[in-house]
Each structure stands twice: as C-alpha cells, then as structure tokens.
Amino acid sequence: MNNLNSLQYFLPELFLSASILIIIIVDLLLKKDKKIITAYLSVLAVLVAFFLAYRQYNYAFTSLFEGMIVLDSFAVYFKVLTALSTIIVIFISMPAFRRHSEYYILLLVVTLGMFLMVEVNDLLMIIIAMEMVGIISYVLAGFNKFNMKSNEASLKYVLYGAASTGVMAFGFSYIYGLTGHTNLFAIQQAIVGHSLQPLPVFIAFVMVVAGLGYKIAMVPFHFWVPDVYEGAPTPITAFLSVGPKAAGIALFIRFLITVVAHPASQTTFIQNVQIQAPLLLAVLAVVTMTLGNVSALGQKNIKRMLGYSAIAHVGYMMMALVVFNTRGFTAIMFYMVVYMFMNFGAFWVVQSMTPHLGSEDISAYKGLGYRHPLTAVAMAVFMLSLTGIPPFAGFIGKVYLFAAIIKQNWYTLAVIGVINGVISLYYYAYVIKVMFLDRDEEIKAISVPLYDRVLLWLLLIPVLALGVYWGPLIDLAHNSIGFFFGN
Amino acid sequence: MIQLESYLIISAIVFVLGIFTILYKKNAVGILMGVELILNSVNLNFIAFARYIDTYINGQLVAIFIIILAASEAAVALAIILNMYRDRRSVDVTKMDEMKN
Amino acid sequence: MIKLALFIWLLPLAAFVINILIGKRLPRKGDWLSVGAIGISFILSLIMLYRVLVDYDPNFLVQGSVPWIDLGVLKLNMGLYLDNLAVIIVTAVSTVSFLVHVYSIGYMEGDPLYNRFFAYLSLFSFSMLGLVMWDNLFGIYMMWELVGICSYLLIGFYFTKDSAANAGKKAFIVNRVGDFGFLIGLLIVISTVGSFNLTTIHQAVGQGVLHGGLLTAAGILLFAGAVGKSAQFPLHVWLPDAMEGPTPVSALIHAATMVAAGVYLMARLNFMLTFDAMLVVAYVGGFTSLFAATIAITQNDIKRVLAYSTISQLGYMIMAMGVGAYVAGFFHLVTHAMFKAGLFLGSGSVIHAMHHSMEKTGIHGDPNDMRQMGGFRKKMPYTHITFVIFSLALSGIPFFSGFLSKDAILGGTLAFAMSQSNPIHYLLPTFGFVAAIITAFYMFRLIINTFYGKPKNESLFKHIHESPKVMTIPLMALAFLSLYFIYTIPSISPAGPEGGWFTHLIERPISAVATQLGHPVLFIPEHTEHAAHVNGMLISIIFALTGILLAYLFYYWKKIDVEKFTQRIKPLYALSFNKYYMDELYQATVVSGLLLWNQMLAWFDLHVIDGIVNGSAWVVRNFSFMDGWIDKYIVDGLVNLVANMTLAFGKSVRKIETGQIQNYILGAVLGAFFIIILTMI
Lengths: 487, 101, 681
What we know:
The structure holds three protein chains of three kinds.
Chain A: H1 3-6, H2 11-29, H3 36-55, E1 62-64, E2 69-71, H4 73-93, H5 101-117, H6 123-141, H7 148-179, H8 184-193, H9 198-216, H10 224-231, H11 234-260, H12 277-296, H13 302-323, H14 326-357, H15 368-371, H16 373-387, H17 393-407, H18 411-436, H19 450-468, H20 471-482
Antiparallel strand pairs in A: 1-2
Helix pairs in contact in A: 2-3, 2-5, 3-4, 3-5, 4-5, 4-11, 4-14, 4-20, 5-6, 5-11, 6-7, 6-11, 7-9, 7-10, 8-11, 9-11, 10-11, 10-13, 11-13, 11-14, 12-13, 12-18, 13-14, 13-17, 13-18, 14-16, 14-17, 14-19, 14-20, 16-18, 16-19, 17-19
Chain B: H1 4-24, H2 28-52, H3 58-88
Chain C: H1 2-22, H2 31-55, E1 61-70, E2 75-83, H3 84-107, H4 114-133, H5 137-155, H6 162-192, H7 198-207, H8 212-229, H9 238-241, H10 247-256, H11 261-268, H12 275-296, H13 302-322, H14 326-361, H15 381-395, H16 401-419, H17 427-451, H18 458-462, H19 469-480, H20 485-488, H21 501-505, H22 512-517, H23 526-556, H24 562-568, H25 570-577, H26 582-614, H27 617-622, H28 630-654, H29 661-680
Antiparallel strand pairs in C: 1-2
Helix pairs in contact in C: 1-2, 1-4, 2-3, 2-4, 3-4, 3-10, 3-14, 3-19, 4-5, 5-6, 6-8, 8-11, 8-12, 10-14, 11-13, 12-13, 12-17, 13-14, 13-16, 13-17, 14-15, 14-16, 14-19, 15-16, 15-17, 15-19, 16-17, 16-23, 17-23
C-alpha cells in the first residue's frame, strides 16, 4: 500500500505522535507544581492509542508504507499489551515523579517506539524502532540524575546497548548484501530461492540474534540486565522488564517466522541453510533460565533479584520458542500478559514500600507481614505466581509453556524447566519467609495511602483472576498468532 | 574499478577495530568512538552493497538513517557521560563497578 | 433468566470487593452496599420465582455455560443450572440473607470490624448462591469450600476471643474430614464419567458407566462431604462451637443456608444414590436427628440449644433424602431455613438485650445463659410472639410451615419402613417420632425459661429492652414466612402440602441408578404411602403436643420437680449434658493425634526451610538432637547438599557479573563466538 493510503491504518501511532507534541507544548504552559497534569494527559493519550490499536484487531493483514510496516493481529496484540504496560507504569510512577513532565513524555515516545517495533517488516525500520526504544530507555534508566547507581546503570546501558545495536546493524548489512533486499518478505524469498553460503548467513544471523537477544535479556547478551535493573528508578526497571521486552520478543518471533522459517513448512525451521536452530534456541533457553535462576539465589537487593528472575523468565518463554508452532507462540503471548501483571505487582510493592522500609534490601522486608499485611500478602501472591504455583496466573502461564514443548517431545527441556522452577522457589519463597516468619520485637505498622492500595489491588486481581479464568485471553492470543500459520 | 570485496574487507577491519576499541578503551568517550566505528562500518557495507548488488538505493537510505541514529545516540550517551563526570570527576569506565555480582 | 441469575449471583461479589477494599471509608462503613446488593438480589430472585410460578412447569430447566478450563484432556465449563429446585433455594437463600443483612445493621452496630462483617456476609451470599446454581460438581466443590471459608472467618470473627478462634479452627478441621471424602468422590466421578457436569453424570450413570460398588462408594463419599457440612453424626461437633460467631451469622450460615448445603447436595445427587448408599444416608440422618435432640434438652446456652436443634433437623432432612422422601426433605430445608433463621435472630435479639443490660448493670456473665433469663415476655413482646411462632413451626404444630414438611418426612420414613420386608427399618421412623417429642419439649423449655415465669435476675431484668425495629422487622417477616399457607397456595388445607405450588414444582428426579438397573431403587406402593402419611400425621401431632405438655409440666406448672427428676436419671442427664462426651472422645483420639501430627509437620517444615536457608550448618548443629532419625538426616542432608551446591553454583556464576561494562561486552562477544562455533561443528 502506498504511503498516503497507509496513514488511515496508522492511526494509533499518528495519534501518539500528535499527543507527544501537544503534551510537550502543554508542559511549557504549566506551572511547576501542576506538572503532574502531563501524567494524566499521557495516560489519556496511551489509553486512546490503546483503543485505537484494539480497533485494528479484526483488520485483515495489511502491508503499509510500501511494505515497511505490516499490520496484523499479532502486532495488534502486542501493541495493546505494550500500551497497557505503559499505562500501568505511568500509574506506578506518579507518586514518585510528580514534577517531571519530561519523564512521561519520554515514556510516550518509548510507547511509540514499541508500537513500531511490533509491526516492522523492514531492516531499516527494525533499526529505527529499536533505537527509538533504546535511546529513550537509556535516558530513563538514568533519570535520577543525582543518584550514583542510576548514573552508572544508565552509562552501562547506553554503552552496552549502542554496541549491541551496532553489531546487529552489521548483521543486517550482511543480510542485505546476501539477498539484495531490506524487506523481510523479500529476504525470505531470496533465502529460499537462491542457495546461499551458509557461513555468512549464519554469522549475520548470530549478529542479529545478539542485538535482539540484548533487547530481551537472553544469555549470553544479558550482562547489562542486573546492573541496569538495580540502578534504574524502580518504575523504569519494571517497565524495562515488561514493555520493551515484550516488544523485543514480538520482534524476535517476527524475525524468526519471516526470515528464518521456511514458508512452505509451517512448523519447523528452514533446512536449506543448515542451522540446527531449534536445538540452538533450546540450549540458549536452558542457559538463560538456569543462569538467571542460580544467580538470583542469595541476592540481597530485591530489584537485582527481580532482574535475575526476569532473565529466568525470558528463558522460560524461549523454551516455547523452540517448538516454533502456534501452540508455543500462543503460550509465550499468554505468558507475557501474565508476567506483566505479576512483575508489575512485585515492582509496585518494591516501589511503594521502599520509602517506608528505607532500603531495597530483601532483609528490610523483615516482618512486613505484620507491619502491613495486605502488601505482604500481595507480594507473597506475586512471588508464588512468579514461581508458578497454583492457583495463580503464573502457574497457568507455565502450564501452557510446558504443554507446548511436551507436545513436541522436548522432554529433557521440560524437565530442566521444572528443575529451574524448583530453584526459583528458593529465592521467591525466601522473600515470603522474610516477610512472615521473621519479625521484630515491636511491630511498627505502616500506613499505606489509598492510592497505593488501590493500585496494588488492581495488579493483584488479574493475577488471581487469570489463575482461575483465562479462556478468553488464551483465545485472543491464539487468534492473534493464527495469521502466521494461515488459519 | 574497485571491487566489492575491497569495501567489505575495509568495513570488516573497521568493525573489528570498533569492537576492540570498545573492549580496551578505559575512557567512556573512547568507547563511544568505538561504537561510531562499528556504525560507520555498517554504513560502508550498506552503501557498498547498494552500489553493487541492489537495483534500488535501499542500502543508501539505511546508511543515512544510521548516521542520524548514531548522532542521536552519541548525543544521549555524551549527556550521560557528562552526568557521570559531574558525579565522579572521572569518565573511567573501569571504576564504575558499584553494582556487581 | 440466566442474566437474571448472574446478577443475583454477582451483585454480592461486587459488594464484597468494594467493601473489603474501601468499606471503611464509605459512609456508614459501607453496610448499605452489602445490604443493597443482597436486597437487589432478593428482589431479582423474587422475579425469578415469579416467572417459575407463572410457568408452573415441574420440568422447568434453564442451562447456560461458557467454556472455562481447557487442558485438552480435561474440559470444564462454567455454567448455571436453573431448575425449580435451584430457583426455590436461591429465593430462600436470598430472602434469609437479606433479612439477616438488615438485622445485622442493628445487631453489629458499633463493632470495630463492622465493614468487614458486611463484606464477609456478602462474600458468603455470593458463594452460597453460586453453590446452588452451578451446573457442575467442580464448581459446586469450589463454592462449597468458599462458603466454608466464609464460615470459618465468621465463626472466628471475634478472633481476640480464644474460644472463637478455636471454634473457627475446629470447624475448619472437622470439615476437612468430610471434604476429603467429597474430593475422593469427585475423583471417582471424574475418572469414570470424565465430566463434572450434572446432566452428563446423570446420563453416564444411567448408561452404566459408573456402576455397582464403585457407584455406591462414590455416593457415600460424596455424602461424607454433606456429613461434614451439614454437621451430621459423627462430624457434628463443630456446629455447636460455631455459635461463637455473631448471632446473625449463626442464623444465616449455621442454621438456614450453609449447613443445608449438604442436604442440597444430596438432593442434587439423589439420582446417583444406590439402595445401599441411601440406607447409609438414611441411618446417619435418622440417628443424628435423635442423638442431637437428646443433647439439646439439657443445654443452658440458648444458642447451643438451637444449634443442636439445627443438627437434629438437618438429620431429618438427610434421613428424608435417604428414604426417598425427596420432596419432603427439600421442603423441610426451605421451611426450616425460615423458622430456624427466625429462632436464631430471636435469640440474638434476646442476647442483644441481655448484653446491653449486662453492660449497664456491670454484671459480668454469659448473655446466652438461660438461667439468667425469664419473664422477658412483657419487655420484648415482638421477639416473644415471633419466637413462639417459630417454635410452634419447629415443633410441627398444624397451621405452621414446619408441620407440613416435618409430617411429610415422618410419613415418608414410615412409608419406607412399611414397604421394606426387614422390620429393622422401623428404627428410622422411631428415631424420627421420638426426636419429634423431644424437639417440642426442648423448644418449649427454652421459651418458658426465657419468656415466662419470674425473672431470675431482677437487676438484669430491669434493663431489658425490646430490640430496635431494624431487628424486629426481619423477625416478623420470617414469622410470616413460617405460616403454612405460604407453601400450600393455591390450596389452603392445613393438612398437607399436597396441591400446593411447592409439591407441584418439585418432583423427585428420575433416578439414574434405576435407569441403569432397570427397576426402581426402592419401590413404595401408593396405598402404603397414603396410609403412612395419615398415620404419620396423627402420630406426629400427638407427639408434638405431648412434648409441649411435658415442657409445661416440668417448667411452667412445675408439677414435676426438675431437680429431683434429674437426680433420679443422673447418669443419663450427665451423658446428655456433656454431649455424650463426643468432644472429649475426639480430643483424646483424633485431635491430639492430629496435633501431634501437626507438630511433627511444623517441626519438619521449620527444619527443612531453615535447613535450606541456613545450609548444612543446621545439620551439624542439630546432630545431637536427632537420635534415631538417621533416615531423615540423610534425606535432609541430601536436600541441603543440593541446595548448597546450587547456591555455590549461583555464587560462582554471579562472578561473571563483574560490574565492568567492558567485561560485559566481552562476554557478549565471546558468547556470540561460542554460538557460532557450537552450531558450525
């Protein structure tokens, strides 16, 4: 479709762009103590974008802007998801960032970047979208300018990120050179049509995986994760672990499907370039989750612990990537939503409790079960859900992930996944133990504002509800992925 | 006439140099320059391929965009490095290990 | 209809969620929310009942479901099953619940946890309504546990009181026993039938998928759940203690609705009971009815008398289910819900008055104790009159609802005995009739001790006042619902429910077991049934009147000296007064055993968890304590070893996070090379 006609299908992004500009102008007119208004406006903007994106759900597959961008239900699913994550993050940030209107504007820009990331279909657009998300994320990670840790996190993030995207771009350049195209579909045709040298293709492929793997925190490209997660402001940590990661996974899946997979065989990887991609992905998944889980053991800082746990969860999701079929992708997409709620919940507890506890150390949570039971119980639910214990949503998510790989006889992988689940129980349960079994002599009750509690419930309810009733969501995920496999 | 291979060899050398710069410079700004090297090797590749392989000019377009991206990335990175310098009076990345393990 | 039912069901849930979250901040602490929600549910349920009455079709059935869980092998639907039975019980539940909500506004006034109380009541209403409307056993089981949870929460509502907290625990533990049976029964059903859906189970049993001994076992195991929830012998011990909860709770949960869930379950599953299973049900019910009645005679705590009376009446209903008097049993469930809720609310009114009087006079004592009461008739006229009406209904005196249903049960039991060749089954009607005398006796003992005679404590008596309108109006409403004609319309004959809407709408479902066997599970000829009903009615009226007469002889006219009489039958009296030492028996055997087990488990937990956290140092430190537990050491040691190894592994793996950004990038580069090499070879 040509550029002019494409605009009508580009409404959510156009709207977001317009609202970013408007909010910047509005921000100039606001007094210093009224800056919070920009936060509300941002919520409104993302909400509208959310609905605009959702309205596109039933559109037929469309190729926009001369093939630079594709609009399909898969993209819409992730657009809705990332928009939702931005909304939640704005709410999480509001108590802490009351005077920083630029913070919310930056979040909106990231959202726009994520929207693009999930619907790109061209090497150029991939680079632009990823940089759009990346550059803003560097700034956000260092948003607490006078905090040493925040600075350090930001610097590490920017250096690591810049290097990774550079490597990825180099990989793209080889892919372009080998196929003569930047459009993903055309690249696929070219790979299938010509017999290419396997070595350059493969090196290019690994370089691209390095860039994408950095985005989704996959081992061995995960090194930045713990430091950045620990140093960044808590809301941003929460955001990085959900929004950009979801977009990254969407991009990863899209890249795998359109470039690596053979269009004729819809269930397995291409064999014309001799890559044992499933096995490679399986090994990476195992390494990712194991490394994430064992490193999380014995962590003292709760954000760092959650950072490592985020790596582990990427490992779980990659497990289902291995089987490369509808079932696996559905499981990942479902898990991403579940993970969003439980992870945001855990980070929200950290964010709302840190001022009361005075520290982000796990030991500071000692006796929280007696000091503010609701928060502690909610945290326990999030921890158990992250572990994957019924009847919480995390369990259902894991069930689908494991079901997908067991269906394709990846038993060893499943067993390793379960062992990892057991390992993760150690450190998640440790938080619960600290909160409930350890207690001080005198109990200093914490009074939590209504806003905090309401938000806590809003995050807790989906974790509980999706644990007992998840049918519609799984159907939605299933329908969204259906297009790729022609059903 | 210069062959495509020459460009590729040059760009590969620049790329490797960039990687090594990143790995061995202690100065944060130096590392940033390494990143620029990598991006320039990418540009070189894209332009060379566009000239020799592609019937269109897609590669050159990509290169232009990457130049812009590199600039904005450098701007942000320099701002962050400045911020770091204000706090620690140093841009030595080996001293930034407050967070580890 | 389905939408209507959904509203009825979900409104209380909404009220619960809002109330538990922000109830404290709402005006009036949010009681209007709960009351409003259940009030609307009540009105909607009346609309639903009205529609059913307009239809006037015994086979009325509306079903609707949405897919819920789909794990490939196991497919579960979430759906509602609305037949006449469900509609009537929904109406009954929402009626009582609504009245109790209203009553609680007065009763719980000024309680520090006022909003939470209403939140719990709402949650309970939601779960109870769900329990009776859900179309599959799994959902019923979930709601079953949920009503249980509400019950424990509300029994232990005054959790600062040790006895209340303990009563909550006791209810929980005792119910676990029954629910365990329920669960096994469910597993049998799912493993043979492959579905929890009631209709599917009905068909499957009819086709003989589940048959013979296993079917009997499934029936009896599912009945075990009912035994726990409906407080049947031998799991009845929790219900009297449950009276530690606030009185409105006793009325709603422990008299009218939740405890009747067991009966409801037996009614729903009546189609799959074999003859043997039915016998078990009938005898457990029959024995409980007599057993509990004999305990009720000697109790002095006004609520405990009512609690034992509830157990006894539940026994009647269960017995009715067992002897095939399905309609009668269910009928008694509904009538009993009304008048027993009334009795509890009435007693609550008395206790409320006593409580306030004690506060004013500064006397410390038990406001529930009948020995402190007497002569309240003049001070509390509304409570008195309604209380008498409820008692008459409970005793089975004509013109009141209890007469109709109780007589139907007794008649049904007698018919069952007459139709069986084995004369031993005459035990069942005997249980019933003797229990009927005793019921009338203890109820009037209660009334005379509370409302008549001279005040036993003058100073307390002075400050006794009638309760506020918000409490007496629900009483009057319930009293009205205890009159016979409510249930016999359009007929107005006080002799029996035949010809009334109730018996028209409720029919015994076709037994799937009979379909499977090809002959009825139990056959009761028409003329036997008729004869039994006429005889039963006469006997039960005479017995009830005898009971009342005896009560008057003992306590009002004092023709028989109570003291002397109890002296003469002292061993029997002591036996009844001490509830047949059931609590002590359980204490000595089950409870202490359980506690021991719990301690063992707690010990195990403590040490294993600590062991994981503290590592192997724990093993070394505790070595000397653990003679003879070598096995455990090895097991624990292994666990700790693995844990420690994992921890150590984690520690060394974490070393790669050096904090140096260049090392990170190097790591990524090496990782990429590693990937390339790994795949190329």
